[in-house]
């Protein structure tokens, strides 16, 4: 039996459903059923009672589950020992929201690639909703997102959420006079607001903060790229909200000017999420460790 077969067996002890386990491992339900049948043939007796589409583990299955969990954990522990000798190998699939993927992650991935050249990190960027969907479907091992993720929400979705760091949002314009003093949001409602698309964590944070005050922004245009929005704010005199890190250069060069909004809290958390049912490899744990160290360094800078 392969380690992956044991992982599937352990997962089905939890889900009691070949269909759910197939989704967790990005395979098909017939493949899961074949693996379970092969294990039963190897053991020489049934390990599950079949009730419709559900599989109820026998006492022998539960006993084997405890033993095989130690085997799987020992396997990954051995990889960790190899990793400590500088021999991390393999592939990590991650997804991040646009701000993290464009402004935080590149430097982190560069340093990680220098340290672990035999590891391939496959990284894509989407909005928050799409990132969560890919993670829950098992298509990625880790999701790095902006937005507010409560422990209750994470638990209900079968996820584990860890706070990586903080991010500050700023409203910005190319009008230095407009930005010369703090403004109430009411003073800006007649401007041409360009926001990120529906599902964006940045958009949700901003609109929710205003919604708490009973305010609503008249959205002139929606785009799914920060740089495209930035260009229109610079060249057309529109107004938008950005992650501060995304416009640091433009603020320093006095191309864009941050507008302080009175009584609006625009600080948000950045999160790392993974599925609670997945078995984290030593490689993934090492990458998470590097992420945390990098965000601590960013917070101190």
UniProtKB/TrEMBL annotation:
Where in this chain does the record put each HTH lysR-type domain?
1-58
Return the InterPro entries for the record: LysR_HTH_N, LysR_subst-bd, WH-like_DNA-bd_sf, WH_DNA-bd_sf
Classification via Gene3D superfamilies: Periplasmic binding protein-like II, Winged helix-like DNA-binding domain superfamily/Winged helix DNA-binding domain
Among Pfam families, the record links this protein to:
HTH_1, LysR_substrate
- What UniProt keywords apply to this chain's record, in alphabetical order? DNA-binding, Transcription, Transcription regulation
Q: Name one GO molecular function term.
A: transcription cis-regulatory region binding
Entries under PANTHER family matching the protein: HTH-TYPE TRANSCRIPTIONAL REGULATOR, HTH-TYPE TRANSCRIPTIONAL REGULATOR CYSL
- What family, per the record? Belongs to the LysR transcriptional regulatory family.
| Name of this protein | LysR family transcriptional regulator
The source organism is: Helicobacter apodemus
């Amino acid at each position: 039996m392969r380690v992956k077969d044991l992982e599937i067996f352990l997962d089905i002890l939890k889900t009691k459903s070949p269909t759910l386990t197939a989704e967790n491992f990005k395979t098909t339900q017939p493949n899961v059923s074949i693996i379970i049948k092969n294990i039963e043939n190897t053991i020489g007796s049934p390990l599950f009672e079949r009730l419709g589409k559900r599989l109820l583990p026998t006492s022998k299955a539960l006993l084997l589950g405890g033993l095989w969990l130690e085997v799987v954990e020992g396997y990954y522990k051995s990889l960790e020992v190899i990793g400590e000798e500088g021999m991390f190998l393999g592939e990590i699939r991650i997804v991040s929201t646009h701000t993290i993927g464009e402004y935080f992650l590149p430097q982190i991935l560069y340093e990680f690639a220098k340290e672990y050249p035999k590891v391939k990190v496959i990284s894509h960027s989407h909005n928050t909703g799409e990132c969560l969907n890919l993670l829950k479907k098992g298509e990625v091992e880790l999701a790095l997102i902006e937005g507010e993720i409560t422990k209750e929400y994470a638990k209900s979705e079968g996820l584990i959420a860890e706070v990586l760091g903080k991010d500050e949002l700023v409203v910005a314009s190319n009008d230095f006079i407009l930005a010369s003093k703090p403004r109430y949001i009411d003073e800006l409602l007649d401007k041409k607001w360009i926001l990120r698309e529906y599902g964006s964590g940045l958009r949700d944070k901003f609109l929710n903060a205003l919604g708490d005050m009973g305010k609503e922004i008249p959205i002139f245009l929606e785009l799914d790229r920060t740089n495209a929005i930035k260009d229109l704010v610079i060249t057309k005199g529109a107004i938008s909200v950005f992650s501060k890190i995304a416009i640091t250069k433009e603020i320093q060069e006095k191309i864009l000017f941050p507008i302080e909004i009175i009584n609006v809290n625009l600080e948000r958390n950045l999160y790392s999420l993974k599925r609670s049912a997945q078995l984290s490899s030593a490689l993934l744990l090492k990458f998470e460790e590097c992420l945390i160290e990098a965000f601590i360094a960013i917070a101190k800078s």
